[in-house]
Amino acid sequence: MEEETKSTAPASGNDDSPASDQRQRIIDFGSAVSRSSRGNIYTLTIAGQVEGHQVLPETAKTTKYEHVMPLLSSLEQSEEIEGVLLLLNTVGGDIEAGLGIAELVAGMRKPTVSLVLGGGHSIGIPLAVAPKASFIVPSASMTIHPVRMNGTVIAAPQTFNYFERIQERIVSFVAQNSAISRERFLSLMLNTGEMAADVGSVVYGEEAVELGLIDSIGSLSDALDCLYEQIAQARREREEALAAAW
To answer: For residue range 91-109, what is the model confidence (pLDDT) as tens digits?
Structure first.
């Protein structure tokens, strides 16, 4: 079986061809399209810090939500792309931006799989559990902690109530999109005995699976096999629907 992955380097000069668009997409999003008889897969990388409403310094590695959101919408509507592979190595970032991306992924009808590599910390956890199936390599880690905010904070009961409501959104989303219970995830989030300078917990590959946070331990090949199985199932369902229509 031959598989084609377009990931060529950018060419110099003006080039408006589809290949040029693909090269620019790889530069902008760290993405690639793989085409084979088993299915056409779009690989999207969520790396560094998820950037929200404020622009981070140029020295910081970021994933910009205003790029990823319309991209996910176009992938869902694309007749060419059959599945999306999400590669995660993120320290977290803006809560609303991360949750917004996670909600889009969770709402996709197309086959989706995530693979946590290195780290899936903080708001990276909802991103990791949002796809239909999730994988984590044994060496990867995930930091679960309460909602935090930098800058000036008004010390009033309403502020702390606001924090609790945001935190509840995260807890509910993770519990709805994984096998971990709401109570167990909250206890890990509020753990005071593990992190020296913070509240929360750090879990690693196998532990994340045992907790029900992530579906399976696996490598890239495992994640791809799972995604191809979803694509095959989607093709069978389309064929059955067409046969029933006749």
So the answer is: 988 889 999 999 999 999 9
Hey, is 115 helix, strand or coil? strand
Q: In one letter, which amino acid is 6?
A: K
| CA torsion angle 198 199 205 209 (round to 10) | -170
CA 165 – CA 192 distance, rounded (Å): 21
- Taking residue 58's Cβ as centre, other Cβ atoms within 10 Å add up to 6
Tokens of 123: 């708001």
Place 6 in a pLDDT band, splitting at 50, 70 and 90: very low
How far is the C-alpha of 45 from the C-alpha of 84, rounded, in Å? 11
Q: Return the closest-CA partner of residue 84 out of 240, 223, 177.
A: 223
127-152: average pLDDT: 90
From 122, 134, 178, 201, active-site residue: 122
List own/partner pairs for 27-31 with CB under 8 A and 24 or more apart: 28/67, 29/67, 29/68, 29/71, 31/71
How much is the pTM? 0.82
Q: Name the residue type at position 34.
A: S
Cα 44 to chain center, whole Å? Answer: 8
H or E element that contains 9: none
Please say if 73 is a catalytic residue.
Answer: no
| Residue 145 annotated in active site | yes
Active-site residue, from 31, 34, 134, 145 = 145
